[in-house]
Amino acid sequence: MAKIVLEGVTKRFKGTTAVDDLDLEVEDGEFLVIVGPSGCGKTTTLRMLAGFDTPTSGSVMIGGKRVNAMPPKDRNLAMVFQNYALFPHMTVAKNLSFGMKIRHEPRATIESEIARIADMLGIEPLLGRKPSQLSGGERQRVALGRALLRKPQAFLLDEPLSNLDAALRTQMRTELQRIHRQFPVTTIYVTHDQVEAMTMADRVALMDKGRLQQIAAPQAMYEEPASAFVAGFIGSPKINLIPGRLRKTGSSVAVSCLSCDIPVNGSAGEVLRNGSADELLVGFRPEEIRPTVVDAADLPVVTGTVEVIEPLGPETHVVVRVGEETLTCKFPARAGLSVGGSIRLELDVAQMKLFDARTGDRIR
Amino acid sequence: MSVLTGVRRRESAENAATRGEAPPGQSRRSRWVINLIMGLIGIWFLLPLAWLLDAAFNPNAGPGLASPQLSVTNFIGAFHTGAGRDIANSLYLAIVSTLVTTAVSLLAGYSLSRRHVPFKGAVLVAVLFLTGLPVTMLLVPIYEMYVAFNWLNSPFWTSLVLASTSVPFAIWLLKNFIDQVPREFEEAAAIEGSGELRTLWRVVIPLALPGVLVSAILTFINAWGAFLIPLVLDSNPGQTPAAVGIYQFLDANAQVQYGPLAAYSILFSIPVLVLYLISSRWLQGGFAFAGGIKG
Lengths: 364, 295
Prior knowledge:
Radius of gyration of chain A: 25 Å
CATH topology of the largest domain in chain B: MetI-like fold
CATH class of the largest domain in chain B: Mainly Alpha
Oligomer: heterodimer
Strand content of chain B: under 5%
Mean pLDDT of chain A: 90
Number of domains of chain B: 2
Number of domains of chain A: 2
Distance between the termini of chain A: 38 Å
Low-confidence stretches of chain A: none
Order of helices and strands of chain B: HHHHHHHHHHHHHH
Helix content of chain A: 25-40%
Strand content of chain A: 35-45%
Largest interface: A-B, 35 and 26 residues
């Protein structure tokens, strides 16, 4: 168990900067998910923690010790690889006991520990098999078992669920959370899947182009994204980002988009009145746009044409064209819509998020 | 590696054959003509082998084919002139040089595959160049050196020269085989606390085992058939390897003893034949990373 700290970590490979001045603190026992599009530097970050890559500058600290130059074998970490990396020439039991034998643990301990972990993960019937005789989910469990037997300072997981089918992925997600409750060891989990990030993390670190964009609890990141990129990455279906123009009339500020003027109050209005940004991105999450029949008291209402209807059972995703823009909305199951039909939508202005269109920064 | 693509290509050819299809652009008749020509060439090359078998079992063998007989006199004769001892000498030279070559080339090939080596490209080209270097070029300086160090007439030191002639090719072969082993396995071992040598021994070598065996077998066969180096470096009659010993039948009393020569040749070729069979099996087996890494 250990706290993990990255201080100003930069990693450059022949001309490209994979990770750029990254500061990150992971508390002891925390489940941190690093998420981001491919090439954002998340795997490089994990590999620097594991010791496979050495930072170009900055320091990596595990348990209060600077480990930049420490070889992987001495870091006492466990890692689950994206493609599992089970030793193909060894049986499952040998794969599991590999590390314990290196650490010279007594044979009786090895056997009882393997039995315990195998029982917990439901892999006892597989102990005598070779990895090639296992299904993807079984390999995943064995890889997890190998990591658990390490009794590490921290777990590093590199997209461990990406090779599984959808049903198994959901199941393993739950299982990983259960395991983390059972062994509350510092865990750093890398994924490109925002659903995994949202469902599993204590905190989510979102990276893009080698830089940390935001680090926050999942719900906080969803509700208060720091930038248009974060807002667009977290949440499914994606947030609607509509171009808007700033309108200053006297002391009041409004943003004009989708053929209506939406007044901006509070601190965001203050910032806009004094700032230079006038090209904006107006963000509404799909659930913040609702169908309406009557004009609500003070909510702006827009009219559009239904383009696509995706019924999902409990809810329906609807793509509506409003002028030049398309809005993705999340409606209750039977919204009684037809493609091509006209629809009136009200925008939940209280939830509106404004971003500077040029920098992508949140205005609040 | 080419070995793997070769196997795959053969499989697809076999599939075509089992479907009874002629390869594109070939009619049935032209295939027949081609088969006939290939058959004739095959017979031409099989004739000496047929003679070898015939002569080995014929107590009065001459340079021509005779009616087949089944006598082991020639084999007994071959053993009386020291075939057993010669083969034991050959085994010693081949085994020692195989062990030395494999150990050295594995470490070198692994380093060249995985570690940062300054001027790696140049080093690899140099190694490749060395594989083409004729032994005769080296023999005079080596002889001088062995005289100076008093290493002549020693099977051990002779086998080291044999090993050194195999090392460059073995390094190339093993580097390429180790390149095929995904690094994740080594990283997984490292995370589990395994040091580099243990990882090499427990993970890399088992996964590159087909390559290691192929390299070892080729080294063995090279040392087994070596003639010039043992002839020059070891003139002790009791230490003659079989490849040198076989010449006693050619120049003894200026008369060729065909029968014992043929029997000796068969004895001499058995280990190599066995190794070729084993190696062809391994080459067909290819790699077995399946299951460890999802690709």
